[in-house]
Each structure stands twice: as C-alpha cells, then as structure tokens.
C-alpha cells in the first residue's frame, strides 16, 4: 500500500516572548509532517531556523518534494542520503519512526532502548534581558533544579552574578548563542566558574571557536551552532567538552542516535536540546536524552498553548511520550 505525505505550517504562541542574543520571538512557527498508509498516521514536527538559512516556506517545499519517494516506499535509511540534514529531514524522519511504531505494534522506545524510558529533569530557560529582570525570573523559578540562562552580550558579568545569586540552589547553564566577543571569552568563563556555573554553551561564533583551544576550560564548554551531525565531531575535540544534539540540526532521530554514540565514544558529554516547539518535537528527543548529561527539552513549558495530548510535565520533570502523542 502506498504512503501519502502532507505537511502544514502551524503556530503556537509563546508565553511572554522568548529572547536570545539574536532577537525575540512571540510565537513558535513549526512545520508538521504527516505520513499515512491509509491505516495509520505517523507525525513529525520541525522548527525551521533562520540562523541556518532555513525558512518556513523552504522547509515546507523540501518536505513536499520528497512525497513521491515516500509514496514509493522510501525508508528512513535511504532518506538520510536523499535529504540534507536539517529541519525538513527531521520532520520526515520522525514521522517515519512514528508510522513504523504504529504499524509494527512496537514503540520507538522499545526499538532503540534497552529498558523503559524514565522521566527526566529538563532545564527551564530564562530569556535574555536586563540583569534585574533576569534575576527576578530566576528567583521565580529558583525551585527548579536546572536553569538555562540566555546571555550573549559584550558584558554579561552583571547578568551571570544576578541570576546565580537569585537561584542559589539551582544548577545553572549559560547559553551565549555565539554572542561573546573573543576578547571577553576568558573573563566570562572565569566569572562563570566563580559563580558555580555548570556549563557554557556556544560562547563564540561558529567558525571563530578555535580560540577555545587556547583558553582554560574552568567550566564545561558545549558546542551548539558549531555541531550539526556526526561529521562535525572530530574537528571539535580540542575545543569543546560537550555537544548539544538537536533533531532539527541532525535531520532527525536516525542521525541523532548515530551521532550520540559516536560523540560518547570520543569522550564528549551529551546535551539534548530543542528549538522552541510543541510536545510533538520534544517526544523523540525525550527518548534520545535518556542517558544524556544535560537535558534541555522545555519547549512546551514556554508556550501559551501546546498540542493535545502533549508531554506531561511536573515542574521540571518531563515524562516520556505516550503513544497517542508520538512513537
């Protein structure tokens, strides 16, 4: 029986806005892929990211273009060579995983994990803002065990100190989104270490991160924009201690699983992260993150409205997806 693919753009409002060093978003615009064989439907969601040259219309077109091959029986394995890594392939790959699970009666978790998936502590994101505003938001969420704090200005000392003081019992990770100048790198890392920060994510622009090989790593330094697929790993070994795996970068769960295995073999610590999307985007990442060192899958917590059914959260504890959602 042939398979039919369709893709649509959907919008989910963000509660209060979401600000990083590159700007502010008030809604999560996602592309949802549906693949059906007439008896079951597989779903996948992706978030096109302008930083990587992606647009909603471009990603939508890339997904629609692969529809004839999907109808002809393209597998996840052949999909990897037919589409480039990125958001479009992620949506199709995850929809195929979901469809396979529904048709086989075996969950994705049962296929890729050796034991049942467990709830995980996820980071909760504090948007970039003035130090006092960020401190107030951190204090409001100081009960959460893990906070991810957006920084990325020429002088973040006051932000780092204010947030760490406001949430003294929380583990703090900083995400500079490529925003730290090279001449401030050592200073900001030193301040981070002094304040007990656990990890700094992507401090320098991708392509300018060679300086990380020459600075003392007083905290764990994690690659995000500098790492997309497994082929990027070898070049990062003397620059980063950890990598952030996002399905919208790898182009789906299939590549992400391989990349995670290879990264662990090279000694990298693992963060599993996300773009701002709905629970459908988080669901496959929850399975990928089962033994990760850091989990950053709070996308639905930042939304004013999520999918139904969505992932279950109790505070910062995220529960594995139910089959009614995905997988």
Automatic annotation (TrEMBL):
Keyword Transmembrane helix on entry: yes
Protein name as annotated: Dipeptide epimerase
SMART domains assigned to the protein according to its UniProt record, in alphabetical order: MR_MLE
EC nos: 5.1.1.-
Note describing how the cofactor binds: Binds 1 Mg(2+) ion per subunit.
Keywords on record: Isomerase, Magnesium, Membrane, Metal-binding, Transmembrane, Transmembrane helix
Active site: 150 (proton acceptor), 246 (proton acceptor)
Enzyme class of the recorded protein, top EC level: isomerase
SUPFAM superfamilies recorded: Enolase C-terminal domain-like, Enolase N-terminal domain-like
Any one Pfam family match given in the protein's UniProt record, by short name: MR_MLE_C
Domain Mandelate racemase/muconate lactonizing enzyme C-terminal: 131-222
Residues the record lists as binding Mg(2+): 175, 201, 224
Keyword Membrane among record annotations: yes
Protein family per UniProt: Belongs to the mandelate racemase/muconate lactonizing enzyme family.
Needed co-factor(s): Mg(2+)
Transmembrane segments annotated in the record for this chain: 266-289
GO molecular function: metal ion binding; racemase and epimerase activity, acting on amino acids and derivatives
